[in-house]
Amino acid sequence: MTAHTDHQAHGASAAGAGESGYDEDRDATDPYDIGTGDDYDEGRVYHVSGQDWDEVVGAAATDERAGDERLIVNMGPQHPSTHGVLRLVLTLDGETVTEIRPVIGYLHTGIEKNMEFRTWTQGTTFCTRMDYLAPLFNETVFCLATEKLLGIESEIPERASVIRVLMMELNRISSHLMAIGTFGMELGATTVFLYGLREREKTLDLFELITGLRMNHAFVRPGGVAQDLPAGAIERLRDFLDVMPRQLSEIRALLDAAPVYLARTKNIAVLDVTGCMALGVTGPILRAAGLPWDLRKSQPYCGYETYDFDVPTQQTADVYGRYIVRMDEIDQSLRIVRQCLDRLGGRRQGDEPVMIRDAKIGWPARLALGPDGMGNSPDHIAHIMSQSMEALIHHFKLVTEGFRVPAGQTYAAVESPRGELGCHAVSEGGTRPFRVHFRDPSFTNLQAVSAMCEGGMLADVIAAVASIDPVMGGVDR
């Protein structure tokens, strides 16, 4: 809890500005405008302090409804319950939350703007870092939008689509395990946190085996995926499927029968279907309110309509229901992963392409490591160099300049672990996006904090935020 009083220093700097003679153009209604003058060559200068604490406290002080125990506190942006850098300004009457204001903007990365200065293929290396717990969903939705603009949706190899589904469902499992593990820790169940991260490590090991990285993979690319599954991956994935159900039952046993956990989650932070629809809330929060809205079923992509799985729902619309939905979704993801392995297991690696055959778009996807385990193998380089000079020149231009995308705009969406993740991509016909904007579910779902928490107890704010499972990297893009 902090109270900022740095406005005095700000006022002193403004007074100093007047004495030096450069406040003649100052806008008296703008507290950040310190005018222009001989000391500044850039024109109008703004001193942005971002300190709104006095305004918040002053507004509360003039509220006629304020009681004797009215208290205004800051929660965050360093509080462990926020999973990042979310600031919550709470107005309390005793231990009852009468008003809550979520404040974002502490983790702005400029990812969307940076993507305008990179090729379409390089864009995946940026957007994968938004929701860092679900990087493969970020990559896939951007590539789906790019492929829509290119008009090549029907040309994506089937094996590439199956691998995309496989990786996304593994990513859904890892994301939900992190959500449930940290959720338990915030309510005092530290053992659940250890169990959740222990099982998540198994999925990250699979990511490292298949893509070479634990996160921020840039594995999904326009036209397909970077490379096929490596040798031994199918066997490792089947071992994973054999172990996970038993491990998940241990987590359920720790939480489902714990009276303290049930008391902290049942009938807490209730948000029904009407509230979800009004605020644009999607994902487990919406399905815990009883609406089976899942883009994998309602607006299928990557061939999801050919997989057999259910959409878990609950009717409680509370924190406990969101936990149950996430656990049930892990079970359904394991079910989908098993179907992916059945489709991939009967085919030998290299028999089918994992990248579009159009050489003007698809990057080489049959990569081979050199003896140092890092660079390309001599055989792989010899294969590229042995082609015609025209093919070699085109390969060089494809990597350095990128491919051109026809002018237009489109929207693609996938069902991420937190809800609808959308990508609005605009092209001017060049090798780089003109504009890329993402509809991140964490950003939208955070609007529900006030509806969930106002009128409840201070301790329930922790459970409410944890049940939303926001990732601030996706909020501040």
How would you summarize what this structure contains?
This protein is mainly alpha-helical and 477 residues long.
Account of the protein in words:
Helices cover 46% and strands 10% of the residues. It is built from 19 helices and eight strands. Strands 1-2-3 form a three-stranded antiparallel sheet. It has a three-stranded antiparallel sheet with strand order 6-7-8. It has a two-stranded antiparallel sheet with strand order 4-5. It is mostly helical and 477 residues long. The two termini are 27 Å apart.
Distance between the termini: 27 Å
Estimate the helix proportion, in percent: 40-55%
Identify the overall geometry: globular
Sheet with the most strands, sense and barrel status: 3 strands, antiparallel
Note poorly predicted spans.
1-24
Tally the helices: 19
Class based on secondary structure composition and strand pairing: mainly alpha
Radius of gyration: 26 Å
Strand runs, count: 8
Properties at a glance:
46% helix, 477 residues, 3-stranded antiparallel β-sheet, disordered N terminus, 19 helices
Topology:
Layout: H1 7-20, H2 53-61, E1 70-75, E2 87-93, E3 96-103, H3 111-114, H4 123-127, H5 135-150, H6 158-186, H7 190-211, E4 220-221, E5 224-225, H8 233-256, H9 259-265, H10 273-279, H11 284-288, H12 295-298, H13 319-345, H14 378-385, H15 389-400, E6 408-416, E7 419-427, E8 435-439, H16 441-445, H17 448-453, H18 458-468, H19 472-475
